[in-house]
Amino acid sequence: MNAPPGNDTFLRALRREPVPYTPVWLMRQAGRYLPEYRATRARAGSFLAMAKTPELACEVTLQPLARFPLDAAILFSDILTVPDAMGLGLYFAEGEGPRFERTVRSMADVEALGTPDMETELRYVMDAVRLIRRELAGKVPLIGFSGSPWTLACYMVEGGGSENFARIKAMALEAPATLHALLRRVTDAVIAYLDAQRLAGAQALQVFDTWGGVLAPHLYREFSLPYLVEIAQRLPRGEGAAKAPLILFGKGNGPYLEELAASGAEALGIDWTVALGEARRRTGGRVALQGNLDPATLYAPPAVIAREAARALDDYAAANGGAREGHVFNLGHGMSPDMAPEHVAALVEAVHAHRGR
Ligand code: CP3
């Protein structure tokens, strides 16, 4: 039996090679907005049971691809698997989001952190990657991911989500050496984690710096940016056709696009507060760009979704000498549980059908 022809538009766009249409995938494309996701989650009993069972993680990874002609799959997991494996004890309090049993507040807490082994504590993630690659059979590429050191440290210090990041910002200002020691440990774990995902079969790697944008510029440049640059510099990507590009996504990273484009990463993921054309001009074609429709656009009717998608595609192309290459279409952040699957279908269709002005 011949393998079906693979769709590699996503990887081609990241390499800034010509593509027949702009590839699209959506952050949080597997999730509670899909009834089949809710059914699998109910069967598993919890989000964590689902994420820690490779067969179920594989099943939910593939669900959005069965519905929509998306151009990439993203591993179903969570960024908090790494601090969990470092010994913090991740759990989800119903209706409250992620929480840790233990937090990191002192140098002694940093020193007590474990160094997770990628084929023991985090084997379930690597097994999921291997299984998903097998099940995808080359249909579309698989994206692996990690949280950024700063974003993971936010959860580790706060003990869960936060409204104002009071504890970690106090640490940044009053005990910077403790925070740097934590970021050092987390950065090493993130690099090992991404490298292991690539070796298990991930074909592109995305770092989510979800909370970088909450920092004042001088603190972003001290506590988030240098660790992103270190990942971009140190992370092995493989060679030739097997090279896995690195995408640095950051919510609120608009002020830092020039610095991020100089990091050595192959691509930047941006939110909707910067226009794609402006991002393309400021980064000068040194990186591919991924984004950046405001996720709330998915609440609008399909005709409006198509209009807004066309606006973003045309804005990028106009700044890119009229060409679509070097752009991966996405939202500027993740999807929400109350979004309509039919509207996702309309968005994917609009992006694929777009042929420019
Ligand atoms: O994009 C994808 O489809 C891949 C899966 C994915 C999840 N989390 C699944 C998930 C990815 C890439 C993540 C990353 C993640 N996790 C981030 C960074 C991305 C971003 O949005 O900026 C962050 C900050 C987290 C931490 C986290 N995990 C939170 C805050 C929550 C609760 C969210 C909520 O709506 O309750 C989670 C749980 C989680 N991770 C869910 C999913 C689908 C919801 C779990 C459920 O109840 O089923």
Explain the layout of strands and helices.
Layout: H1 9-14, H2 35-44, H3 47-51, H4 54-67, E1 73-74, H5 81-88, E2 90-93, E3 97-100, H6 107-111, H7 123-136, E4 142-147, H8 149-158, H9 166-174, H10 176-200, E5 204-209, H11 217-223, H12 225-234, E6 246-250, H13 257-261, E7 267-269, H14 276-283, E8 288-293, H15 302-319, E9 327-331, H16 341-353
Helix pairs in contact: 2-4, 4-7, 8-10, 9-10, 10-12, 14-15, 15-16
The chain binds coproporphyrinogen III.
Structure description:
The protein has 357 residues and is an alpha/beta fold. Helix content is 47%, strand content 11%. It is built from 16 helices and 9 strands. It has helices spanning 9-14, 35-44, 47-51, 54-67, 81-88, 107-111, 123-136, 149-158, 166-174, 176-200, 217-223, 225-234, 257-261, 276-283, 302-319, 341-353, and strands spanning 73-74, 90-93, 97-100, 142-147, 204-209, 246-250, 267-269, 288-293, 327-331. Strands 1-4-5-6-7-8-9 form a 7-stranded parallel β-sheet. Strand 7 (267-269), helix 14 (276-283) and strand 8 (288-293) form a beta-alpha-beta unit. Helix 4 packs parallel to helix 7 (123-136), helix 9 packs across helix 10 (176-200) and helix 10 (176-200) packs parallel to helix 12. The model has no long low-confidence stretch (mean pLDDT 97). The structure holds coproporphyrinogen III. Coproporphyrinogen III binds next to strand 3.
